[in-house]
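May I ask for a sample protein chain and its fold as tokens?
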Amino acid sequence: MHHAGRIHSLETFGTVDGPGIRFVLFMQGCALQCAYCHNPDSWDTKAGQLRTVDDILAEIEPYVPFYKRSGGGITVTGGEPTLQAPFVAELFEKCKERWGLHTALDSSGFCDPQHAKRLLDTTDLVLLDLKMIDRAGHEHLTSQPNDRILAFARHLSDAGISMWVRRVLVPGWTDGMSELLALGEFIGELRGVDKVEVLPYHRMGVYKWEQLGRAYRLDGVPEPSPDEVKRAYRLIEQGKQAAIASKSAKTAKAAR
């Protein structure tokens, strides 16, 4: 079965999307419209270039030794890669068959796990963007509620798939104290979270909004300071420890 995928762009030397040096494939199309998106040109599901899995394998091949030696691999991001799950599943399967590459899926989790079953079967790591825990806040930020996303996170936890949980820190939007504590508590209830990453909001994609003639809602929002990033890590950790403590208290009670 040969799938064609709609591709936004690709990068042969990625260092921020998973461990090691990675091939990073940006898929076209997304169901969320995050106010801070730095690739709003990746939302449209009809845009992008149609490429086959074999096309992409040919792009990866010359660099495989770098990826392997650095403990890297391939990351598929977007847009939202689960919208093209059959294509990404086939690509991951071939990367494993040919080179034994480590596979990472960078997803918002806005996805039905049943729809992505074959893809998740061949995914080593999910980089999961938990944009907001507060449901109304999430809808305001992204145009969609987060029920499916939280359910997807629980599914990954139950399925034993490794995760890095990421939070884009947007001052005044995603950095509230109760929001970050709630994020930590949610993470504390999940299994398989190997790493938590706080990604400081940046304005590098603002020009794309202007090119697309879209109003940029975060105009005037500053990038967070290093201290604000530290505070976020601290609050998330605090929430996580609270969840772990309450879980062990429940276990102890049940054992009595």
About this structure: The longest helix spans residues 226-255. The mean pLDDT is 95.
